[in-house]
């Protein structure tokens, strides 16, 4: 089955440590995204990538970094500079170039930083 | 957008009744809209989408209505079942854009 795999499901880190969240897709989608979800709020875009080796900042990119070395993979690093890193992180992908196509989401990684 | 608080609006319906979930979108230039369902601890699942050249679209047990005049979107679920209990949220996209704007969601609770 095609889909998006995020790992791990739960992640715990101490304050001051960087942590990398994995996202892999086998849908052959060009575009990939990282969103952050906090209670009672809509999803907020962190970074997105429309093609390999290229990515753009979203609305809340500060304290995060990404890479897109392969079409299938779009890992997100939460750095120690991110002031409120505890959140539910969602990776998504979509067909690039389509005049509006739905995002397909993974099942998320819940990050807790103490 | 800014936080609207920790508590989502909740809609409680009896099993078998129809549900209507509403969403006010923000940008009159948005031309593509999606409804997602999110169960606890999972990622959002695509339910149905609609483009701005339509005002109604039907799927299996679901109907989306779009009113561009008042920038309003609604999701109707027929014969609501316990498995429909989840948070539902809408997303809007501006033409040629690759960023969606998401609403905070409505929690649907199905009563036995």
Give the topology, please:
The complex is a heterodimer of chains A (114) and B (112).
Chain A (H helix, E strand, L loop, with lengths): L3 E4 L2 E4 L5 E7 L5 E7 L6 E8 L2 E4 L6 E3 L9 E3 L8 E8 L9 E2 L3 E5 L1
Parallel strand pairs in A: 2-11
Antiparallel strand pairs in A: 1-3, 3-8, 4-5, 4-9, 5-6, 7-8, 9-10, 9-11
Chain B lengths: L9 E5 L4 E6 L5 E9 L6 E7 L4 E3 L3 E6 L4 E6 L8 E9 L5 E3 L3 E6 L1
Parallel strand pairs in B: 1-10
Antiparallel strand pairs in B: 2-7, 3-4, 3-8, 5-6, 6-7, 8-9, 8-10
Account of the protein in words:
In chain A, a hairpin with a 6-residue loop joins strand 4 (31-37) and strand 5 (44-51). In chain A, strands 2, 4, 5, 6, 9, 10 and 11 form a seven-stranded mixed sheet that branches. Chain A has a four-stranded antiparallel sheet with strand order 1-3-8-7, with no helix packed on it. Chain A has no helices and eleven strands. With 114 residues, chain A is an all-beta fold. Chain A starts with a strand and ends with a strand. Chain B is mainly beta. Helices cover 0% and strands 54% of the residues of chain B. In chain B, strand 3 (30-38) and strand 4 form a beta hairpin. Chain B starts with 9 loop residues before the first strand and ends with a strand. Classes of the chains: A mainly beta (114), B mainly beta (112).
Mean pLDDT metric of chain B: 90
Overall mean pLDDT of chain A stands at 93
**Secondary-structure-derived class of chain B:** mainly beta
Number of E-state strands of chain A: 11
Low-confidence runs of chain B (pLDDT<50, min 5 residues)? 1-5
Q: How does the major sheet of chain B shape up?
A: 6 strands, mixed
Q: How widely separated are the two ends of chain B?
A: 35 Å
Class from helix and strand fractions of chain A: mainly beta
Estimate the strand proportion of chain A. over 45%
What series of H and E elements makes up the topology of chain A? Answer: EEEEEEEEEEE
Tell me the radius of gyration of chain B.
14 Å
Oligomer: heterodimer
Q: Approximately how much helix is present in the residues of chain A?
A: under 10%
N-to-C terminal Cα separation of chain A, in Å? 36 Å
DSSP strand tally of chain B: 10
């Amino acid at each position: 089955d095609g889909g998006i795999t995020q790992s791990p499901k739960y992640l715990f880190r101490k304050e001051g440590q960087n942590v990398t969240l994995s996202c892999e897709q086998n849908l052959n989608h060009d575009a990939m995204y990282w969103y952050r979800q906090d209670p009672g709020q809509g999803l907020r875009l962190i970074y997105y990538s429309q093609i390999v080796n290229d990515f753009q900042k979203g609305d809340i990119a500060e304290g995060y970094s990404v890479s897109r070395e392969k079409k299938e993979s779009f890992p997100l690093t939460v750095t120690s500079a991110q002031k409120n890193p505890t959140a539910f992180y969602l990776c998504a992908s979509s067909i690039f170039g389509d005049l509006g196509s739905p995002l397909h989401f993974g099942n998320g990684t819940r990050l807790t930083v103490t | 957008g800014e936080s609207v608080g920790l508590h989502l609006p909740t809609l409680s319906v009896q099993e078998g009744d129809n549900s209507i979930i509403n969403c006010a979108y923000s940008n009159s230039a948005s031309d593509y809209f999606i409804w997602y369902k999110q169960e606890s601890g999972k990622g959002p699942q695509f339910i149905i989408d609609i483009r701005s050249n339509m005002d109604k679209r039907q799927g299996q047990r679901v109907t989306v209505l779009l009113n561009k005049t008042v920038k309003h979107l609604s999701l109707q679920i027929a014969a609501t079942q316990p498995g429909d209990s989840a948070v539902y949220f809408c997303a809007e996209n501006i033409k040629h854009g690759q960023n969606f704007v998401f609403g905070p969601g409505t929690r649907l609770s199905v009563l036995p």
